[in-house]
Amino acid sequence: VLQLRKTLECIAFAAIAPNRKAYEQFRNTDFTKDFNAKKITTQLNKINKHFYPKPLLPAVRGKDNVWNHAKKESGFLTQKRFEKVYDRLGKYLHADNPWGNDKGLSNFANEYPSFVKQIHGLLALHVTSIITPDFKGVWIVESDSNFAKARIIIAEAAGEFEFTS
Fold this sequence. Notes:
Layout (H helix, E strand, L loop, with lengths): L1 H15 L3 H7 L10 H11 L6 E2 L4 E2 L5 E2 L10 H14 L12 H19 L1 E7 L4 E8 L6 E7 L9
């Protein structure tokens, strides 16, 4: 449970990185003390509505000899699901009150492999939009199967651009 929650927190912290200056300015308090992944994603959404990784399918060469990535439609952790899973994990981190309600831990244990697969589906090949005063564009990130190595394609726009998802 703890490892999965920390994984989600790492996804949130990674999303801060390209948006750090804007995030730091947006936050009224010391952003280095932020830890709650759901709150971080809520704040980031106000700065850059396309901050959350968008999973992609492998590139296919089109008739015009240009490579294109189609967006992945299923099999990944959506932002909404990310937030629900994060909240759900929180209740398992504390001792059970023996007189309280069942937390549904056995159901969670059955779903755990699905969550891991959805996180992998999100991060294995994804694009993230970066909009800062110094850079406007996207990063396409591809990881090997065990996430030991990553490749990044950086695509910078000459000006304003629209991110279609």
